[in-house]
Design a protein that fits this description.
heterotrimer, A alpha/beta (about 280), B alpha/beta (about 525), C alpha/beta (about 350), A: about 280 residues, alpha/beta, Elongation Factor Tu (Ef-tu), domain 3, Rossmann fold, 2 domains, 7-stranded mixed sheet, 6-stranded antiparallel sheet, 15 strands, B: about 525 residues, Dimethylsulfoxide Reductase, domain 2, Barwin-like endoglucanases, 3 domains, 6-stranded mixed β-barrel, about 30% helix, globular
């Protein structure tokens, strides 16, 4: 029987400082005998010595394999311990787990990404894989737009990736909650950037951020006429196993680890969900 | 408790005062709630809207420290309404006239103002309590931890005697004890003025008896109370201390004074199951065995002596408290410190302690132990106390007068700070409970309960860090906005060493019980600005 | 093809039969200890203990098949890297004297731990287990297994089922493991006569009339499929839930767990799985403080809906087996039966 609780060994190849609280850890699995693949939107259970496990979204694209990025904000015990690790240190990973963003269905569509803070992490891989496919596919994704909100200028994460996306034609619109002297861009909530002209009949929206942001963005998109199936979001929950066994991530009869974390608004609409109420 | 826990559920009225029963005594709360489900009335006296208060038919949210005034008013109303139990009063009590005359001189409107409770509500509560012949009073540290604690208890007793709600199966006065064996510790005279079984050291016959068995002189004068010892200060006469299973560096009031006392001792030994803050100050630490690692007895709130059976072997080199004491005793040359078994210990207890007279070890193995008084081997134990007589003969009414707390709020310290246990998840200084991953997960840090009104006034949000000041010290703690406290009062626990709240509390104490006034002190608070 | 067989075991052959079984594997059965508590206990010496088939064991089989705390893995983290090691193998174990409610709970747990993935740690023990049940001829005071269709006798799921028919046990094999045991020790048994079968039928009819509690479980399950529960009911229940977790811990079908690391020293430690309770705030609270469940309002919502609504929808059966243990354990008097009563009362109002 497969030992489902035994993590695989992975080594940290590179660490990127995204901002004061967020670091991206570029990992590589040590045991190459088992094939590893994943789809953007899925997550891993990350083990750090003496700290147990935590569910972390993969923030890179499968095209970057064998390297796997985990972007982690320093918040609790485990994430604080991860932040203290160095290149060459080992962690344990299990996964990938959960549902993913259906990139195959995005052919010919316009994608609107709306993210807040660390919420860009699970969406990042989708943007990367779509850009990669734009060059190869016959009917690739059309316009990609990213609306990204941060609390302050110093909180803006993933600047390197955003710069690269801009050069590849992604319309990246940034906003901060608190105005600062040398900030040239938008000030205000990310919902301010959500203009009707961003939507086409072929738009799919992908949303991730704090619960309150998800709530307002979905409400606004819905009001602007986007269909429930064209609104995708990914939810964060406390998890212990990632495999639908431990029960912590229960969501009104569903489990976020297997039925999610990626949901369409259509699927969430009739449930009691913190992010929508 | 004069009653047994199991009797409670059949009472008709519960008057719970100064007890957050659901969180601190869930097994007793369970009986109360069961009674309520069966139709009993519940009256709760508590400045806080505890979970039990939310279930109450009447919640008397009094201003902290005004218990005597409130209960005096209830008694006056009971007499006015002709609800006093005249027969009981004449047969079983004395000094009633003095109390009655005093009560007749009370101004009820003034009491309503003092307690902050409408007279009508007090009247309703008084009538509900007095109309039933099966009324139970449960009280806890909210009554005793005041500088008028003894008077508070006396007032509660007056109320019960006035209505004849004592000496029966479903009526009585039930103080709820804290630690699992605090009743046993008191029974065994871990108190300054008595020998085991509450026998006064001033009684010469008793002392002779003990001297005969212990081969030791019995001190002629009462010893010191806990706070007198821990607050003796640097120049106190105490030079050495042995502390068992207690963490006064966090749990006693006015902590700076405690620390001063302990750090100035010539010698400090501490015995505990974990290295507590107090143990860290000790010259010698004895690692003690936990309840699961030893045999013995535990006496609970309903005076029931139960066997505690060892479940696992002691971990590491820890040893049961009894062995530690005996070994110390032997090394100090104390005779008789060679008990071979728990049965032998119980034999000496029953020999010297009349209320434990029939509590032989083999009898405790049957059923669920025995309730004292249990006078001899054939005695079945006592389910409820004071049937036919009080311990002192007739029950004495004592006139008690309202007395303001030692420290009042004023311009610089406008808030009243209440302290107590903060949740189900932690116990006392959390010596044990913070070693449990799950309990820490559920209640990770200290919180200051504060009303929404006060937060609005002070521009505070839920979870803001505030600095709490009293005349004696200051701590930093996170706010929790709640409807549990009234505007003008704040509440926090003493569980967390990071928030040593007893640096703020007063060291005023009840002159007789020496119980400190943990429940009331005046504080100010202000938001801590980050960076 | 499983040979479903029925035989009669004379009562005086029970001990000799168990003695043979114990020779080949670990034997666990309800034993009354010195303090009067009946608990499933590993038996070292059959002659030294009294197997108690008259009282409901205070705990179900859960502590054995899904221990309160179990080692999922051990780990080392040193200059050679960060590695995990599998725990040790389990022994063959026979559980004797298991009640119908508790076996039903095991069957439910089998299901929960087989999808979407097979829980290797649970199945390691489960695959090594043989379960011999005893049908209940006298329900205990809090029992309501008839209402949850998980007793008093069972039709399937057991390896062997014993029904006390007076001087003998009516024994049925429900799975091949049980049939193999009957084959192997056939000399303890006699064949079933017509009267035996009639007695068994008669007893079943009698016991069904002996239940103390009338809990309308399936009606409640159907109500939940059709209607939302009034918020006021959740609040009423939550106001009396004191977060002790007792209901979840004694519940034979509550399988939610936590996983935590316990360091042994700076280089090594254990990864432990332990029981958890969805009634606690920390069960769902996320790092950073957001909590998708407000305990003050919905402390028991997940627990009751999971058992009576979601599992009923998925399996056509609630995952409450009517064992009644949560009734005794609850401080606040808000066990599953009080929820069902409130629900059914609300419908009538």
């Amino acid at each position: 029987m497969k030992e489902i609780f035994i993590p695989d060994r992975a080594v940290i190849r590179e660490i990127l400082n995204e901002n004061k609280q967020i670091k991206t850890f570029r990992l590589e699995l040590l045991d190459k005998t088992h094939p590893f693949s994943f789809r953007p939107g899925q997550f891993l259970m990350l083990s750090v010595p003496h700290c147990g496990e935590a569910a972390i979204s993969i923030s890179s694209s499968p095209t970057a394999l064998p390297l796997i990025d985990l972007s982690i904000r320093k918040a609790g015990k485990l994430t604080t311990a991860v932040h203290a690790l160095q290149v060459g240190d080992e962690v344990g990973i299990r996964g990938p787990f959960g549902t993913f963003f259906p990139v195959a269905n995005f052919h010919g569509r316009d994608l609107l990404f709306v993210a807040g803070g660390i919420g860009l992490a699970p969406l990042k891989g989708v943007i990367d894989v779509c850009l990669f496919q734009q060059e190869l596919e016959e009917n690739p994704v059309q316009q990609i737009t990213l609306l990204y909100g941060s609390r302050t200028v110093a909180d803006i994460a993933f600047s390197q990736a955003i710069e690269a996306w801009r050069q590849q034609g992604v319309d990246c619109q940034l906003t901060v909650d608190i105005d600062e002297l040398d900030w040239q861009d938008h000030v205000g909530l990310v919902t301010d950037l959500l203009k009707p002209e961003l939507l086409t009949k072929d738009t799919t929206a992908l949303i991730c951020g704090p619960p309150i942001m998800i709530r307002f963005v979905i409400a606004q998109l819905s009001e602007m006429g986007l269909s429930d199936t064209a609104i995708l979001t990914t939810l964060e929950r406390h998890m212990k196993c990632g495999m639908g066994l431990c029960g912590h991530c229960h969501l009104d009869g569903k489990l976020v680890c297997v039925d999610g974390p990626v949901f369409t608004y259509a699927a969430l609409k009739n449930l009691h969900v913190m992010e929508l109420n | 408790m004069t009653n047994s826990i199991g009797e409670l559920q059949d009472a008709d009225v519960f008057l719970v005062t100064g007890s957050n029963t659901t969180e601190t005594h869930p097994q007793i709360a369970r009986n109360i709630l069961q009674g309520v489900d069966q139709g009993a009335q519940l009256i709760v006296i508590d400045p806080r809207k505890t979970d039990l208060a939310k279930q109450a038919h009447i919640h008397l949210a009094l201003r902290p420290g005004t218990d005597i005034a409130l209960i005096n008013a209830m008694m006056r109303i009971i007499i006015d309404e002709n609800l006093a139990d005249e027969l009981f009063i004449s047969m079983r009590t004395e000094n009633y006239e003095a109390l009655r005359d005093f009560l007749f001189r009370l101004d009820l409107d003034e009491i309503a103002a003092i307690t902050g409770i409408e007279l009508k509500t007090i009247r309703d509560a008084a009538c509900i309590y007095a109309r039933s012949s099966k009324s139970v009073i449960c009280y806890c540290l909210g009554v005793t931890q005041h500088c008028c604690g003894t008077d508070n208890v006396q007032t509660v007793a007056n109320l019960a005697m006035l209505t004849g709600n004592v000496e029966k199966e479903h009526g009585g006065v039930d103080p709820l004890r804290g630690q699992n064996n605090v009743q046993g510790a008191c029974d065994m005279a871990a108190l300054p003025a008595v020998l085991p079984g509450y026998q006064a050291i001033t009684n010469l016959d008793t002392c002779t008896r003990f001297r005969e068995v212990w081969k030791r002189e019995i001190p002629q004068n009462p010893g010191l109370s806990l706070t007198e010892m821990t607050h003796a200060g640097a120049d106190g006469n105490i030079r050495a201390m042995f502390i068992m299973g207690e963490n006064p560096v966090l749990s006693d009031p006015h902590l700076k004074q405690v620390e001063k006392t302990l750090t100035n001792l010539d010698f400090l030994a501490v015995s505990d199951i974990f290295l507590t803050e107090t143990a860290s100050l000790a010259h010698v630490v004895f690692p003690a065995a936990s309840f699961a690692e030893k045999n013995g007895t535990i006496t609970n709130s309903e005076r029931r002596v139960q066997l505690c059976q060892q479940a696992i072997n002691p971990i590491g080199n820890c040893r049961p408290d009894g062995e530690i004491i005996m070994e110390l005793g032997r090394r100090l040359g104390c005779p008789g410190m060679d008990f071979q078994s728990q049965a032998e210990v119980m034999e000496e207890i029953s020999l010297l302690t009349p209320i434990y007279g029939g509590m032989h070890y083999d009898r405790l193995q049957e059923n669920w132990g025995l309730q004292w008084p249990c006078w001899n081997r054939d005695h079945p134990g006592t389910k409820f106390l004071h049937k036919y007589y009080f311990s002192r003969g007739k029950g004495q009414f004592t006139v008690t007068r309202h007395q303001e707390p030692a420290e009042r709020t004023e311009k610089h310290y406008p808030f009243t700070l209440l302290t107590g246990r903060g949740s189900y998840h932690h116990y006392h200084t959390a010596t044990m409970t913070r070693n449990s991953t799950r309990l820490v997960r559920e209640y990770p840090e200290a919180l200051l309960e504060i009303s929404k009104e006060d937060c609005t006034k002070l521009h505070l949000a839920d979870g803001d860090l505030v600095e709490l000041n009293s005349r004696r010290g200051k701590v930093r703690v996170k706010t929790q906005i709640t409807d549990r406290v009234q505007p003008g009062t704040v509440f926090t626990s003493f569980h967390f060493w990071e928030v040593p709240i007893n640096q703020l509390t007063v060291d005023a104490m009840d002159p007789r019980s020496k119980c400190p006034e943990f429940k009331v002190c005046a504080v100010d608070l202000k938001k801590v600005c980050h960076d | 093809m499983i040979d479903l067989r029925e035989l009669i075991l004379p009562k005086d052959q029970l001990l000799p039969f168990l003695r043979k079984l114990k020779k080949e594997s670990r034997l666990i059965a309800p034993v009354q200890n010195n303090y009067g508590d009946t608990l499933f206990t590993e038996i070292d010496d059959l002659d030294a203990v009294k197997i108690d088939l008259c009282h409901q064991p205070q705990a179900s089989l859960k502590p054995f098949l899904l221990p309160q705390q179990e080692i999922l893995a051990s780990y080392r983290s040193d200059n050679k890297g960060y590695r995990f090691y599998e725990p040790e193998e389990e022994e063959d174990t026979i559980y004797f004297g298991v009640r119908s409610c508790d076996l039903t709970a095991v069957l439910y747990t089998d299901l929960v731990f087989s999808q979407p993935v097979k829980d290797s740690s649970y199945y390691k023990r489960r695959n090594q287990s043989t379960i011999i049940t005893i049908g209940c001829n006298q329900p205990f005071s809090n029992c309501f297994c008839e209402a949850t269709e998980s007793g008093p006798y069972l039709e399937y799921g057991y390896d062997l089922q014993l029904i006390d028919i007076g001087e003998a046990y009516f024994v049925s094999a429900g799975r091949s493991k049980g049939a193999d045991i009957l084959d192997k020790w056939s000399y303890f048994f006699r064949s079933v006569e017509k009267e035996d079968r009639e007695k068994r039928y008669q007893l079943l009819l009698e016991v069904r009339g002996k239940f103390n509690k009338n809990i309308q479980v399936s009606h409640a399950c159907r109500l939940l499929q059709e209607h939302e529960v009034e918020e006021q009911i959740w609040q009423q229940l939550s106001s009396r839930c004191y977060d002790c977790g007792g209901c979840a811990y004694v519940c034979p079908t509550c399988t939610c767990f936590s996983v935590d690391d316990t360091p042994i020293d700076s280089n090594k430690g254990l990864r432990l799985r332990s029981w958890d309770a969805c009634t606690s705030a920390g069960f769902t609270r996320m790092t950073g403080g957001h909590n998708p469940v407000d305990r003050r309002q919905h402390a028991l919502k997940r627990r009751f809906l999971h058992k009576l609504k979601f599992d009923f929808a998925e399996h056509g059966k609630p995952s409450c087996t009517g064992c009644g243990r949560c009734i005794d354990i609850c401080f606040g008097g808000v066990d599953i039966t009080s929820f069902i009563r409130l629900l059914v009362k609300g419908e009538r109002a």
